[in-house]
């Protein structure tokens, strides 16, 4: 044993070990600092950015109104899309064939057509249906309204964005619920839970850990996608800055105003998403750390 120890030599002391020198990390850090410095000089030194104009219109009343419209549109599309998407996801996971076929066709239709095309289509719905009626199919009509009065830019934007979101969220919900161990449903069934209670008390709380990250990213996408409603004369954030730069011809500064507020809202939404992720991952993270 002594000969083996002598051949092996003294053992390394971990406490006195030093980290290995990695020159490429230092090179990367230096290059990154140089690029950041160059970017800062470009942003500050280029007078064509006209930061004074940006500051002047940053809190303009019309810009704030457009920002509010953008946020309201994104929240409305996300809420309505979540409700419809949840129903579509439940239909996809059901054992009833016709429901699955309709849900699959729904996802394929509204996910396959570009959102801009859908917005323009819903805005021109009055061409196909001059009158919108409510009643029993092939039976009496309870009420009828002029389509041009009902389909305003706001309603067209909400309908179009909500339908697009419902298709994407349906797939997100389906993947999240499919990630839950089937044994959880079997255990709930054995304990006498009805299907609705099993879904809302057993399946969804566990599925939220998988659902929230892509759903949060989808909210960011719809928040940025609201810029498309400017083509149907909806006064969102982009439309508000377009009106201003069409009047004063300060295109780049006004676009910087829009970029600033988009970044602010997206950053706030991302922070909220991170909090929700931590909340719904508490038990899972604790279990993973204990292993």
UniProtKB/TrEMBL annotation:
Residues covered by the ABC transmembrane type-1 domain: 67-270
Q: Where in the cell is it found?
A: Cell membrane
Transmembrane intervals: 26-45, 65-91, 103-130, 150-170, 227-245, 251-272
Main localization category = membrane
Coiled coil spans? none
Which branch of life, at top level? Bacteria
Its BP terms in the Gene Ontology are: amino acid transport
What NCBIfam families does the record point to?
Answer: HEQRo_perm_3TM
Q: What is this protein called?
A: Amino acid ABC transporter permease
Query: What organism is this sequence from?
Result: Amycolatopsis acidicola
């Amino acid at each position: 044993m002594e000969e083996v120890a002598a051949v092996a030599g003294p053992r390394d002391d971990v406490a006195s070990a030093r980290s290995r020198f990695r020159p490429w990390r230092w090179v990367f850090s230096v290059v990154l600092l140089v690029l950041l410095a160059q970017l800062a000089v470009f942003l500050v030194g280029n007078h064509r950015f006209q930061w004074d104009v940006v500051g002047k219109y940053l809190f303009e009343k019309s810009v704030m109104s457009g920002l509010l419209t953008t946020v309201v549109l994104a929240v409305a599309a996300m809420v309505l899309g979540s409700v419809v998407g949840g129903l579509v996801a439940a239909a996809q996971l059901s054992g009833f064939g016709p429901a699955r076929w309709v849900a699959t066709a729904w996802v394929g239709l509204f996910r396959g057509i570009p959102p801009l095309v859908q917005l323009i289509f819903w805005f021109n719905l009055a061409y196909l249906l001059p009158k919108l009626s409510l009643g029993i199919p092939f039976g009496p009509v309870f009420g009828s309204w002029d389509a041009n009065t009902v389909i305003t830019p706001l309603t067209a934007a909400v309908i179009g964005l909500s339908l697009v979101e419902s298709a994407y969220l349906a797939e997100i919900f389906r993947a999240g619920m499919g990630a839950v161990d089937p044994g959880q449903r079997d255990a709930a069934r054995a304990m006498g839970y009805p299907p609705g209670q099993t879904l809302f008390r057993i399946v969804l709380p566990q599925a939220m850990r998988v659902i929230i990250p892509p759903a949060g990213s989808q909210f960011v996408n719809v928040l940025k996608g609201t810029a498309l409603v400017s083509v149907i004369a909806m006064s969102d954030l982009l439309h508000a800055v377009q009106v201003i730069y069409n009047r004063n011809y300060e295109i780049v500064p006004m676009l910087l105003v829009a970029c600033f507020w988009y970044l602010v809202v997206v950053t706030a939404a991302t922070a909220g998403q991170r909090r929700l992720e931590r909340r719904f991952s508490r038990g899972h993270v604790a279990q993973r750390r204990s292993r």
